[in-house]
Amino acid sequence: MFSSVFPSCKLPENEKDPSPVNVPNPPSVSPVEGAAKLPAHEQVYQRLRAQILFGELAPGQAVTIQGLVEALDSGMTPVREAIRRLISDGALVFQGNRRVSVPELRAEDVDELIFARKTMECELARRAATRIPASAVDALEALDLQLDVAIASGDVAGYLALNYEFHSRLNTHADAPILADLADRLWLRFGPSLRVVCGRFGTQSFPDRHKDILEGLRKKDADLVALAMERDVLQGMEQVRAGLTPIN
To answer: Is residue 108 scored above 90 in pLDDT?
Structure first.
């Protein structure tokens, strides 16, 4: 189906891309070991995914495929494959005329995201509570201290990357790869809007419940960890909902 949507994805040689886009390197707090050894198409996918996840591509911002090719310094085929996968992930939508964009999150979408995140991330947290080693809890605590600094200093990019990393690392200790993958995909749905809201109201409007999560992990109290995660998800998503409401 994708090949029929983008039959060639080529611009005439004498036609300049009307909407080039700058795609900087994604913020990184824990580079994937061996990432440079990944195939070219996977590197492009991961990089473009990070730009969406951390809001470097704003919701509703239409960009041309050729613009992405130039910004990512990649060939057309890897970019087309990355776009195909990200459309499947729900992170991009095809706009026609060889353009794609990050979908805009509606306020009514937040209810679904809250339900889905609470269902999956609370269960992941519950499972992780009884499996995570003390050394990994120490690492999460150190990460959360960096997050505190980002919040206090108004470092939006740092906040977004570190907050995601905290949740992602915790999920890996649940030993539930299917749930973890589903939860990770949900972040692509609200991550770009989270960047918008942080830019609008500042990072200090997003206090987290990570300290409560860490306390539960130290005690290996699965119920406490799950409850803290539920509150963290609900608090964050309600902030996103409030940020999507136009200011009169």
So the answer is: no
Alpha carbons 59 and 91: distance in angstroms, whole number:
10
Mean pLDDT in residue range 88-103: 91
Q: Is 184 exposed, middle or buried (0-12, 13-18, 19+ CB in 10 A)?
A: middle
| Among candidate residues 225, 237, 116, 227, the one with its CA nearest the CA of residue 173 | 225
Tokens for 228, please give them: 């803290």
Q: Which residues have a Cβ under 8 Å from the Cβ of 170 and sit 6 or more positions away?
A: 124, 125, 128, 132, 140, 213
Cα distances (Å, whole numbers) of residue 92 to 19, 57, 95, 183: 17, 10, 9, 17
Asked if 19 and 64 touch (Cβ cutoff 8 Å), the reply is: yes
The encoded tokens of residue 3 equal: 């090949």
For 86, the token pair is 């990200």
Joined tokens for residue 76: 């057309």
* pLDDT tens-digit series, residues 216-248: 999 999 999 999 999 999 999 998 888 876 544
pLDDT in tens, 145-184: 999 999 889 899 999 999 999 999 999 999 999 999 999 9
Q: Report how far residue 173's alpha carbon sits from residue 171's, in angstroms, rounded to the nearest whole number.
A: 5
* Helices 156-172, 177-201: inter-axial angle, 10-degree rounding: 160
Nearest alpha-carbon partner for 216 in 139, 146, 137: 137
